[in-house]
Hints:
single chain, alpha+beta, nine-stranded antiparallel β-sheet, five-stranded antiparallel β-sheet, 5 helices, 14 strands
Amino acid sequence: xxxxxxxxxxxxxxxxxxxxxxxxxxxxxxxxxxxxxxxxxxxxxxxxxxxxxxxxxxxxxxxxxxxxxxxxxxxxxxxxxxxxxxxxxxxxxxxxxxxxxxxxxxxxxxxxxxxxxxxxxxxxxxxxxxxxxxxxxxxxxxxxxxxxxxxxxxxxxxxxxxxxxxxxxxxxxxxxxxxxxxxxxxxxxxxxxxxxxxxxxxxxxxxxxxxxxxxxxxxxxxxxxxxxxxxxxxxxxxxxxxxxxxxxxxxxxxxxxxxxxxxxxxxxxxxxxxxxxxxxxxxxxxxxxxxxxxxxxxxxxxxxxxxxxxxxxxxxxxxxxxxxxxxxxxxxxxxxxxxxx
Length: 341
């Protein structure tokens, strides 16, 4: 018998014997990736403060049936077969519901609790006409579903799927896809969306408005270089300061020049202690510049790592300050990898 023909026969038989979920997983992943890529490429935020992400893109252009949850009244929980222990996890929590697929779809209840916004998903099949419990994939660590991580449901290639999400607001966002397998789920793939980044002046405070317009773009450039080069800035007007003439006992808080508070966070921005002082030449209104990362604050209030603080001084007194934010500006590319072993 021809060897090539034998191999082809065996390959076909292998596919016939493979569980339906195993055969469907690659098609589901391809369909999800294609839909998400199209949605991200079409994203055009009406609100300039809305940053690109998979969730914000599918709000404008639905993709892969993705549902990132909506609030559910706790009184509606009675429609689901929940144990007493499961019901108590919804006490003092934000309750979300997610849906995907139609007759053979999925429903998910989610209790979001605490300052870290930790998710506790409960999954159900709708195939029998009423919710039937399914075993949700366990995260590698309980905190894998907290803060910038969460859950979602979707449907593609005729199958509903469960997803774990990770979105820190920077270069990469991930969607880990799980497809049905018996009474539970099997990891199918991880889809990663990669983004272009830029440093932009998110907020500025100045004694003279002309200082803000003169230095905002320059401050954004300084912040990007400072972060990329571990404290170095490529500007001939700046030189690391040492001693003489530097503002003495400058406070750790970013000077707001008379403003009540920042609009970006409910508490004052503070330098984290690793910043650098530079002597400045070229503009008589400024003689020293302080550049440094923002100190960490309470989780969930702001994305503290995104901010770089810059303060301009003249004669030992603050003249202007800027909050520079590292922001996503555009979709760059999509990647897809197989399940982790």
